Amino acid sequence: MNHSDIYRILPEVILTLTGVAIMLIDATLPPNWPRRPLGWVGAIGTTIALWASLWQLSLPQGAGFFGTVETSYFTVFFHVLICGIILVALLLSLDTLPAQSHHQGEFYALVVFGAVGMCLLTSAIELLVVFIALEISSISTYILAGYRKSTGRGPEAALKYFLLGSFATAFLLYGIALIFGATGTTQIYEIARLAPLAQNQVLVVVAVAMMLVGILFKVSAAPFHIWTPDVYEGAPSPVVALLSTAPKAAAFALLLRIVYEAFPSLHSFWSPLLWVVAVLSMTVGNLAALRQQNVKRMLAYSSIAHAGYLLAALAGAADIGIAAASFYAAAYAAMNVGIFAVITLVSGYDDKCPLIDDFRGLLYRAPMLGSLLIFFLISLIGIPFTGGFFGKFYSFSSAVDGGAIALAIIGLLNSGLAAAYYLRLAVVSAQRPTADESAVPRPAVGIAVGAALGMCVAATLALGIVPNTTLHAAQNGAHTLQPPPETQPPVLTPAVEVEPQASH
Which of 382, 411, 383 is nearest to 397 (CA)? Predict the structure, then answer.
């Protein structure tokens, strides 16, 4: 290790220092002082970490800390995406957390510490570091899921998330142990080189399957989605905006690295497996969402379906599939954080308007919020000129290019099915309210949450109108997410002695 290795984890260092600063300041403030400024400390630190991620583009691609972390276009893409989500989530919570909520400083610190694990998860090329990063991220999100203790749903959601998450993490850790037994290493590039040569190929296949179980749980893909609806319903809406996007983006980055970088030789095994998971996720998520009356539970099942849309991209060739999946992760993050920001403002911290019918007449009571809700729903459907359209377009195009035409058709049919419940919420919000509903006070939009909504709208529009910049960045990341060419030793040929010819 040399002193320049610190640049490889500079965003994580900045986020860690920000979290520590928040906790130290929180401990020194008098109990009766407001903790809201600590959220601004977190937002500033996250912004600096985002710029540090972009600065990493000036570094040569390579690994640091003895080959455990990597800096590349791929890692920078997901670092920027995660830091952007964290920034918006912090701005959203600044105006929506109650002023006298318990342990408010710890809330902001947990969000920032969770970002440390998520960023490290996308740049780790050593499976033990992957496990540590996953635990850093998971512990923060477990606590945040149960942050609202005024209702029994909060602790229930946290407990379910913790128990099922620990079970899934055990699968991942056991898979890491098996692949170490088969190859003798946990370094991803070394695994890619040694896995095809392993004597016990069954052990390698079982290891891959167990690691996929752990990762697919984190992205809430069917049939590993059981935790999602309860956690979405029980956690505060600002936390759900974070949980539904940032940890999933990090987990998808890990999934891409595992299948394309560590086990490209097992493409014939994991590709059909992910094909089946994609179909299950799309179908189960959309069918279950059709039956929901609770908005957050409906969006929870919707997120399961979107995990299937993203997984469909992995049916394509390596470069195309990685770029399409990365782009979809960015598009989904923008529109999903945006719609949860609207729900947070309408329902409040305590979810006073949990049902779809509670949104009746929103377009008349609060025209801006009603318009934004319909806009984000249109993007989730995949209507042109929104990020959701190009996200699905690139994902299904990747599946078609990979020969999975049936998968693309199933995805299109599911997209049509999803339009039913998205449009139901949009129609209800556009209906004229009754006299009682008109008397409901309009939600107040503060500066911080207004900035968060503006970022989400701008990102969703940019990804739908001028997607080339983000797609180009995703393609650059796809090109770098390949095992480095193995250095071949020089071939030594034995010297051949030439006998002198006899003179005639």
Answer: 411
Judge whether 376 and 343 are in contact, CB under 8 Å: no
What lies within 8 Å, CB to CB, of 441 at 6+ separation is none
pLDDT value of residue 176:
96
First-residue to last-residue Cα distance in the chain: 66
CA distances from 212 to 77, 173, 175, 296, 502 (A): 22, 11, 9, 27, 71
Q: Is residue 334 part of a domain?
A: yes
Q: How far is CA 115 from the centre of its chain?
A: 11
**At residue 30, what are phi and psi to the nearest 5 degrees?**
-60, 150
Give the pLDDT confidence score for residue 489 in this predicted structure. 36
Residues in the chain with pLDDT values less than 70: 1-3, 101-102, 435-444, 482-504
What confidence score (pLDDT) does residue 43 get? Answer: 95
Residue 33: per-residue pLDDT: 84
- Residue 482 domain-assigned? no
For the record, the structure tokens of 363 come out as 């377009």
| CB environment 75-114: b (16+ within 10 A), e (fewer) | bbbbbbbbbbbbbbbbbbbbbbbeeebeebbbbbbbbbbb
How far is CA 132 from each of CA 12, 114, 186, 258, 317, rounded to the nearest angstrom? 13, 12, 13, 16, 30
> Is 244 inside any structural domain?
yes
Task: Give the C-alpha separation, 229 to 301, whole Å.
Answer: 7
What domain count does the chain have?
Answer: 1
Question: Is 350 inside any structural domain?
Answer: yes
pTM of the full structure: 0.92
Contact 453, 299 (CB under 8 A): no
Residue with tokens 């609207």: 342
From CA 478, how far away is CA 182, in angstroms rounded?
A: 28
Grouping H, G, I as helix, E, B as strand and the rest as coil, residue 29 is coil
pLDDT score recorded for residue 104: 84
- Contact indicator for 373, 362 with CB cutoff of 8 Å: yes
- Please tell me the distance from the alpha carbon of residue 329 to that of residue 279, in angstroms, as a whole number: 18
Q: Given this model, what pLDDT does residue 498 score?
A: 40
pLDDT at residue 471 in the model: 93
Nearest-angstrom CA–CA distance, 478 and 30: 50
Q: Which domain holds residue 397?
A: 3-477
480-501 burial: b if 16+ Cβ within 10 Å, else e: bbbeeeeeeeeeeeeeeeeeee
- The partner residues of 63 in beta bridges, in order of sequence, read 70
Instruction: Give the bridge partners for 187, in sequence order.
Output: 126
